[in-house]
Design a protein that fits this description.
Cofactor: Cu cation
Radius of gyration: 24 Å
GO cellular component, one term: apoplast
Helix content: under 10%
Strand content: 35-45%
Family: Belongs to the multicopper oxidase family.
Largest sheet: 6 strands, mixed
Strand order of the largest sheet: 10-9-12-17-14-15
GO biological process, one term: lignin catabolic process
Domain Plastocyanin-like: 42-154, 167-316, 425-558
């Protein structure tokens, strides 16, 4: 048997392998593509629930176009605003390394695209694969302006699970039988909570249980025995959702474009902003099966208690004896609206498939109380004070109710050195300690309105504990951090105990996410490394809470050199 020892010719062999590595490295980028798109934001007639509305869409589609790319690809998307509202687009979960100018939240990283204007978003997908999504980030436009982002692995790199026969994006949405912007405008005028939605949707359609909807119910044909990858996105404006498929098991394989240890479940709980990839095998009797979603409600507040459906239809399913009509679909058993035990059990099963690179030495340990509040009115009988007991609803983090600037965006003001737009004195802990989930004194219910940022050194290791409060009501607040992914290292109910709770942290294989909910009346802890310079919004993804102030932003300083520094803004960046 002939063999070669590397030590015989160390120089030439090492040189050969070095050259080989270079070729492999170059080849990994050789297939990277540049995708050009034009997104026209405009009103189009859309009929749902028996009525036609002038609905804001992208390219006349509702939901909007699906973006399909590979890891390493670049997207160049020109957004043309032909609507009557200011607009921006956010690429939810995309890291946007050194490129906050493409992130999209209005008055944070850019001024809005005004009607009749345009702006081109340019960004590269870097070391991400899975399901993300895009949506408007300007008031309530995202009620109808949203779509999927599917990031396939680089060429030649397989999924870490068996290749499915087909893939189906499932976008869970929320529909108002009126203009959503008018619903928000009325709520902001009165100070009361906005009207709840009239329907939930799957891929834009309410489904069989709503008026005038059954003819357009989404139907997904499948062959018996095949395995399908469902890429599920909660694009609903204000509601966590339970989702399941009748008689079928769901195998969870990824969340928020990060793979997980696979586990099987009958139902998932998914919060606004989150994505969940599941494998489903058509292994039941050939028939028609409903997939369905309804609310998981954690607040003491009104909510939409309707159920949206679509149909998983076996191509070999028999027809009924009556005129060859399809059989009536079988309905799934979904948890109760307030079934926190099921929601908690689901999220507790999420794990990374490998040992995670969790920051261990923490530079910034932050405790953020998140919740609602009430603004007292000098004239409680005013039309502008229609909240509880003549107040106006508010929300805050650490008692600071975030005020979005209007004269300039935060990032533009920072880059240009413009003073007076924000301060960097956001409190790292609650200004006043209290029993966060107990009976809170009414004197602590009114937050302070301000535009405060928290400054982070480049590459600092950060831990945040999000602590829900019982002010007004406890609630699951899905917290989304722009520009970053983070590890979810622990959670619990009641008040976080810094002496005993860290011992329960999972620092081995915690899931990686970009959006995580606070358990109602509880806390959740995350860790990340501040390796992306710029200004990055942190906010609750329940969009009712965003204009109320449940947000803040991190200012991550530049590091050393060009590769650790925010890139210059594009020439067509909108001005305020």
């Amino acid at each position: 048997m002939e063999y070669h020892k590397l030590s015989d010719k160390p120089c030439s062999s090492h040189l050969f392998f070095a050259i080989l590595l270079v070729f492999v490295f170059i080849a990994s980028f050789a297939d990277a593509a540049i995708h050009f798109h034009q997104f026209v934001i405009e009103a189009k007639p859309v009929k749902r629930l028996c009525r036609t509305h002038s609905t804001i869409t992208v390219n006349g589609q509702f939901p909007g176009p699906t973006l399909e790319v590979r890891d390493g690809d670049t997207l160049v998307i020109t957004a043309i605003n032909r609507a009557r509202y200011n607009a921006t687009l956010h690429w939810h979960g995309v890291r946007q390394l050194r490129n906050p100018w493409a992130d999209g939240p209005e008055y944070v990283t850019q001024c809005p695209i005004q009607p009749g204007r345009s702006y081109t978003y340019r960004f590269t997908i870097q070391n991400q694969e899975g399901t993300l999504w895009w949506h408007a980030h300007s008031r309530w436009l995202r009620a109808t302006v949203y779509g999927a982002i599917i990031i396939y692995p680089r060429m030649g790199r397989p999924y870490p699970f068996l290749m499915p026969k087909k893939e189906i994006p499932i976008l869970l949405g929320e529909w108002w039988d009126r203009n959503p912007m008018d619903v928000l405008r009325l709520a902001l005028f009165t100070g009361a909570a906005p009207n709840v939605s009239d329907a939930f949707t799957i891929n834009g359609q309410p489904g069989d249980l709503y008026r005038c909807s059954s003819k357009e119910t989404a139907v997904f044909p499948v062959e018996a025995g095949e395995t399908i990858l469902l890429r599920i996105i909660n694009s609903a404006l204000n509601q966590e959702l339970f989702y399941g498929v009748a008689n079928h098991k769901l195998t969870v394989v990824a969340v928020d474009a990060s793979y997980t240890k696979p586990f099987t479940t009958n139902v998932i709980m998914i919060a606004p902003g989150q994505t969940t990839d599941v494998l489903i095998t058509a292994d039941q009797q050939p028939a028609r099966y409903y997939m369905a979603a309804h609310a998981y409600n954690t607040a003491n507040a009104a909510f939409d208690n309707t159920t949206t459906t679509a149909i998983l239809e076996y191509k070999s399913a028999p027809c009924s004896a009556k005129k060859g009509r399809p059989l009536k679909p079988i309905f799934p058993q979904l948890p109760g609206f307030n079934d926190t035990a099921t929601a908690t059990a689901f999220t507790a099963q999420l794990r990374s498939p490998y040992k995670a690179e969790v920051p261990m030495k923490i530079d910034e340990s932050l405790l953020f109380t998140v919740g609602l509040g009430l603004i007292n009115c000098t004239n409680p009988n005013s039309p502008r004070c229609q909240g509880p007991n003549g107040t106006r609803f508010a929300a805050s983090i650490n008692n600071v109710s975030f005020v979005f600037p209007r004269r300039n965006s935060l990032m533009q003001a920072y880059y240009q050195g413009q003073p007076g737009i924000f301060t960097t004195d956001f409190p790292p802990v609650p200004p006043i300690q209290f029993d966060y989930t107990g009976n809170v004194s009414r004197g602590l219910w009114q937050p302070v309105k301000a535009t405060k940022l928290f400054k982070l050194r480049y590459r600092s290791k950060v831990q945040i504990v999000f602590q829900d409060t019982s002010i007004v009501t406890v609630e699951d607040h899905p917290m989304h951090l722009h520009g970053y992914e983070f590890y979810v290292i622990g959670s619990g109910f009641g008040n976080f105990n810094p002496r005993t709770d860290p011992a329960k942290f999972n620092l081995i294989d915690p899931p990686r996410r970009n959006t995580i909910g606070t358990p109602p009346g509880g806390w959740v802890a995350i860790r990340f490394e501040a390796d992306n310079p710029g200004i990055w919004l942190l906010h609750c993804h329940i969009d009712t809470h965003l204009p109320w102030g449940l947000a803040m932003a991190f200012l991550v300083e530049n590091g050393v050199g060009e590769l650790q520094t925010v890139q210059p803004p594009p020439l067509d960046l909108p001005q305020c």
